[in-house]
Amino acid sequence: MCNVCGCGTGETRLEGEALDHEHEHEHVHADGTVHRHTHHHTDEHAHSHAPYQWVPAGAHGHTHRHADGSVHAHDHVHEGEHIHEHGDDSVHYGQGPAGAHAPGMSQAQMVRIEQNILAKNDGYAERNRGWLADRGILALNLVSSPGSGKTTLLVRTIEELKNQVPVAVVEGDQQTSFDAERIRATGAPALQINTGKGCHLDAHMVGRALEKLSPPEDSVLLVENVGNLVCPAAFDLGEAAKVVVLSVTEGEDKPLKYPDMFAAARLMLVNKIDLLPYLSFDVQKAIDFARRVNPRLEVIQVSATTGAGFADWLGWIDARLDEARAGRQRTVDQLRARIAELEAQLAAKG
Amino acid sequence: MHEMSLAEGIRQIVEDAGRSQGFNKVKTVVLEIGQLSSVEPDSLRFCFDVVMQDSIAAGAVLQIDSVPGSGWCMQCAETVPVAALYDPCPKCGSYQVQATGGTEMRVKELEIE
Ligand SMILES: Nc1nc2c(ncn2[C@@H]2O[C@H](COP(=O)(O)OP(=O)(O)O)[C@@H](O)[C@H]2O)c(=O)[nH]1
Ligand SMILES: [Mg+2]
Ligand SMILES: [Zn+2]
Ligand SMILES: [Zn+2]
Ligand SMILES: [Zn+2]
Ligand SMILES: [Zn+2]
Ligand SMILES: [Zn+2]
Ligand SMILES: [Zn+2]
Ligand SMILES: [Zn+2]
Ligand SMILES: [Zn+2]
Asked: Taking the model in full, what pTM does it have?
């Protein structure tokens, strides 16, 4: 366990069930090249057994052969970070310098890797993003320090939205499931992920949660991340946007102390503005600091307890929903184009 | 930040590379860490040593190559050097600077035996 921020391999639990097992996969490419990697895998996982998956840019189809001989296929994102092993024992990098082969192992002391440390998470995030886009689901990832008002905001947001659009919630918390219970009291489905010692949600956990929750098409998925302004900035979950909540009971300089989160967010909600008369919090100063870090940051001032500012916040969600629907239409168009392309290939071979 | 998770990501990458390329002892792990990525090198070193125990990189040297930060200044319409996400443009003083370089966290290469 890390002494610095306390995160670690921790016991991740999804509604109380342990979430941790992986196995090795062998990937066989159409051209006969083979490569292996491990990834988490269960029967419920979208990426594993679905016969068809959304195809993100740069993805290609993989066939997986299991130890028991069963075979399944899925699409899988390559970012030039994947190491491929060829049948002839030569090795090359996914996008090495023009596909160059590495020198023989006997002389080579240095092995070039050029791989993003969080590449594994990013791969799962892209998969979630595709899964969501495919279904026109708008996913927002709410992040803040503990106590800024995320759960209270979610409860009120669900109350306001639930007659217009279905809302489902993923709740991240290190230990408890109180927040999920608060959400369920509104009637919205909520799934609790307990990260144990882990101080953030990752994309693999959220992928699993998505399958359990299976939110309907054209709905809203709200994710309450673990209360922490550091780690969650680096872990893409596949959301459309991160929404950072800063309450007026915190310091105005928080955006300068935790710049990564404010840089990663699209929207900042300044919460608890009902308390402004009793405090010396300078809202404009906080906004200026946040925009030093992220000049494009959008800002809405709200109170989750009085509902002040909610018209703007709900309007913002509505605009994102329109984007999600437009994105889904693009996916459908791309799929049609892809089908036409494949049919043309088939006809040519036929 | 979450240095422990990063160290675990590094271990995964190193073990995968060893498996696919057939080596089983790593002497040095070379990282590229952007100046704007907010990784604490000291805490990463600490976590690295702990996480790499029992791996093919147990006891390996961790070399961290720092990549300088840069951003796009909307006022100057050019790329300028910045040391932190909240720094102003060094040319015009504006805060309208969007980070463009120095946010990476990558495993660059391995020295193997
Ligand atoms: N006055 C006031 N209190 C709030 C507001 N939003 C949340 N709170 C209170 O702040 C505390 C923490 O809220 P919670 O939603 O649990 O925060 P979370 O940890 O970010 O999920 C609770 O006591 C809430 O009642 C608000 O807009 N105004
Ligand atoms: Mg909460
Ligand atoms: Zn940590
Ligand atoms: Zn796979
Ligand atoms: Zn693969
Ligand atoms: Zn999985
Ligand atoms: Zn499988
Ligand atoms: Zn491949
Ligand atoms: Zn963390
Ligand atoms: Zn400038």
From this structure: 0.77
Using a CB-CB cut-off of 8 Å, the residues of chain A touching B60 are none
Residues comprising chain B, all counted? 113
Given the candidates 3.40.50.300, 3.10.50.40, 3.30.10.20, 3.90.79.10, the CATH classification of the domain at A119-330 is 3.40.50.300
Q: Could you tell me if the ipTM is greater than 0.90?
A: no
- Residue closest via CA to ligand 1's atom 7 equals A149
Closest CA to B70 of B23, B112, B103, B31: B103
Phi, psi of A61 (to 5 degrees): -75, 140
CA-CA-CA-CA torsion sign (A193, A194, A200, A202): negative
- Cβ proximity of A173 and A195 under 8 Å: yes
According to DSSP, residue B94 is labeled: -
Q: For residues A53 and A46, is the Cβ–Cβ distance under 8 A?
A: yes
The model's pLDDT over A99-126, given as tens digits with 9 standing for 90+, comes to: 333 444 444 489 999 999 999 899 999 9
d(CA B58, CA B49): 7
Alpha-carbon gap, residue A151 to A172, rounded angstroms: 11
Neighbours of A303 (CB within 10 A): 22
**Dihedral angle sign, alpha carbons of residues A278, A224, A184, A313:** positive
Q: Of all protein residues, whose CA lies closest to atom 1 belonging to ligand 1?
A: A272
